Amino acid sequence: MKNRIFSLGAYVCCILLITLIFRESGLVPQLQPVPLWSVAEWFRGSLDSGISIILNILLFVPFGYLLTGLDSRKKLRPILLSFSLSLLIELLQYVTCRGVFDVDDLLTNTLGGLIGEVVFYAFRKAFGLKFAGAAWIRYALVAVGIFGCLLNAKMMADSPGTVYERQFGFTVDEVSLDSGNLHMTGSCALTKGATPPYTLLLKEDTGEEAAFTEDLQREFPLQTELSGDRFTAKAPAISADRKYEICVVFGRRKPIGTRVYLHGDALEYVPGKLPERPLWLPEGAVLKAVNDEHGVHIYQGGSSLIWAISKDIPEGTELICHLSTNEPEKLPESRRAARFDNIGFMADHAASHELASQDGCRIFSMTLPTEYRITSIRTGYAQHGMVQWEENFRP
Hints:
There is one protein chain. The protein is of the alpha+beta class. It folds into three domains: 2-159, no CATH class; 164-268, Immunoglobulin-like (Sandwich); 286-393, Sandwich (Immunoglobulin-like). The protein is 31% helix and 33% strand. It has helices at 2-21, 37-43, 47-70, 77-96, 103-127, 129-132, 135-158; strands at 30-32, 100-102, 168-178, 181-190, 198-204, 219-221, 223-227, 230-235, 243-250, 256-263, 266-268, 286-291, 296-301, 304-309, 317-325, 340-346, 354-358, 361-367, 374-383, 386-393. The strands form five sheets. Strands 6-5-9-10-11 form a five-stranded antiparallel beta sheet, with no helix packed on it. Helix 1 packs antiparallel against helix 3 (47-70), helix 3 packs across helix 5 (103-127) and helix 4 packs antiparallel against helix 5 (103-127).
């Protein structure tokens, strides 16, 4: 019995690591009260939503199996405890901002616990109680949980950007640099709820090596004055020759990068040295994202995104944009449950989006919605409903 309790406890620890400990804390609590919204997304072609549903179910299958192995006479206990554990996790995710309180997670987790119970009874009927409760099965299930923890940690490390980027909007309206004295105005606000007091700072950009030299980057706190969602920031002795990322410090949190860069008195939106500006690019269009692996440069001019793609586009590729907003009530009705918009087109059938080729690049154009305020854009390639790569930037 002690070994069975130990196995169950070890797997519960794996669940907590995956759903809470390894997750990055966001800025605001998030709630998704609409049941089966993720199923609707799956049916609309979002393979990511389908995979999320399946993983949520599979996560609790071993829990239901191990729980049934403790006392197979109490048939309702695995279902009730699966629901209770899932509810506890969702509440903790909400309170700690380490995820979304999602009704669909409650349903899929509980279903997973039920499936685990059914599998135990099926094994017992087919092979006997001794086989169903064998130690090697328990250890194998715990090993699967440990593997899931490692995989989850790797996915978090490889994930571009942070959860913060979709939780606040940030724009700079005016910037001037006179003899090293910086003066900057703009707005910053959470996409949901009241925006807490914050300050701004500049972090010197070290280009592609920034991720490996973060501790060496020089930080310059800005004198920040707030008025509602508006800010005015000032600082002396800022070099016009260097490039800085503007960061926000909410309360006592660590600085959060905005993906807005200051180079002299000019604003840029990608780290490092900018590539040469194409001659064909419309006046006022600004580089917003770069993916060298796929040869993609994305520019924004007004309400249009312009894709310049120098490498072959895999067949069946969709060019996607996930648009975050602080006005979800203005989204199309089919997108309100998801609380973000999803637009895109297939590269193979994009006659209405593809422009004349330039400098060996295929050029595509996409018009952004203007019915609601866009606070951040997540863009990239998707194939068969699965996102292949993505970049996040500020509109």
